[in-house]
Amino acid sequence: MTDLSGRTVLITGASRGIGAESARVFADAGANVALIARTADGIADLAGEIGERAVAIPCDISRYWEMAQAVENCVTAFGGLDILINNAGVIEPIARMEDADPDGWGQVIDINLKGVFHGMRAALPVMEEAGGGTILTVSSGAAHGPVEAWSHYCASKAGAAMLTKCLHKEMADKGIRAMGLSPGTVATQ
Length: 189
Prior knowledge:
The chain has 189 residues and is an alpha/beta fold. It is 47% helix and 17% strand. The chain is built from five helices and six strands.
């Protein structure tokens, strides 16, 4: 990876899996990393492992005000925000639509789709003022193909993929690039 010394990366869903490993890779490349997750213990442990270039910021991305505060805390800790990785996501509760709990279905949308928007919306003013930045949304093959009993996940990932394309179209001329990444199946939690 390129030398990212002096750059700051904020990663949602950083307590485990893709998020935690991304934090390690970015830190190894010299970046400051702001670790975001609902579970404070997981990100605190990871911040301790990484050291002084990491800060743990507990946050529920389904609430915009929490995400806005997390971005503000990141900027306070490191002086800016260069890269946002929208990684947080959930898949449970898996159920066919006829059996799906509407509240559970909606909670997946709140995290997987609205959480992505909240991260983007909170980061944009900071990135625009700095003259640019990068927003990476972790997607899924489920964004492009239906999976039985995964209507909530497929719909949320399809929405997040389109949201990312819309953001790129709206902000590329201001130096903010947005892109999606679909890593496929990974052996994590």
